[in-house]
Amino acid sequence: MKSVAADLFYLPNLEFFASVLDSDQILLNPNDYYQRKSFFNRTQILLSNKVETLSIPVIGRRPRIPLRKIQIDYKQKWLQNHLRGLQSAYGKAPFFEYFFPEIEAIYEKEIPTLWDLNLELMTICLKFLQLPVKLEVVESWDGIRPEIDLRGMISPSIPFAERGIYTPFAYTQLFGLDFEPNLSVLDLLFCEGPSAKNILTKSIKKD
After folding, report:
1. Which domain of life does the protein's organism represent (predicted)?
2. Distance CA 153, CA 5 (A)
3. If you write DSSP's letter for every residue of 46-67 in order, what string do you get?
């Protein structure tokens, strides 16, 4: 069984899914510490005139907090903005109506912690991609020897091209003349539907 130790992201980008595509098991640890300016609370989508970053506000800025304890700040209007943003960006995409209701249903639960929200969204995205990958939550890394350890590798501060995980394979997007690579997996799902897994396969960086 090929296992990958990974970080849990908010609606992860294509680089993340390319990195776990051929794995059997993704290991996630809710006791890892929260890192600011990470993909734990942000993702990117394509609007008509720009790439937009969607960020989830969290309560408190204390350092060294386990991921499972990070609370979402629902007093801010981020939820409405994210749902409107997805509808504006992808409402006319071929597979929007097929996937969006299940995504929206997760948001409408108003899940208190960012960890639990991300985990539900990750689970539904794996289902949509038809990837037979098992998510395994571990409480400690002691004694665990994953075949691949991606923790800390995929970061917004470093261009994806420098990591050698993902190479863009262009698909039809709704806006713009130039292909925008490595957006949220929702961009691929809404635009390509059942072809998404095949496109991800072609996006794996070849040695």
Report:
1. Bacteria
2. 11
3. E-SSSEEEEE--BS---SS-BG
Rounded-to-integer distance, Cα 207 and Cα 148, Å:
16
- What residue ranges in 59-196 does DSSP mark as E strands? 134-137, 148-149
Burial classification of residue 168, based on how many CB atoms lie within 10 Å of its CB (0-12 exposed, 13-18 middle, 19 or more buried): middle
Query: Cα–chain-centroid distance for residue 149?
Result: 17
184-203 per-position pLDDT tens digit: 999 999 999 999 999 999 99
Cα(22)–Cα(25) distance, integer angstroms? 9
Sheet holding 25-28, edge to edge: 134-137, 25-28, 3-5, 148-149
pLDDT in tens, 153-188: 999 999 999 988 999 999 999 998 899 999 999 999
Query: pLDDT, tens digit, for every residue of 119-147?
Result: 999 999 999 999 999 999 999 999 999 99
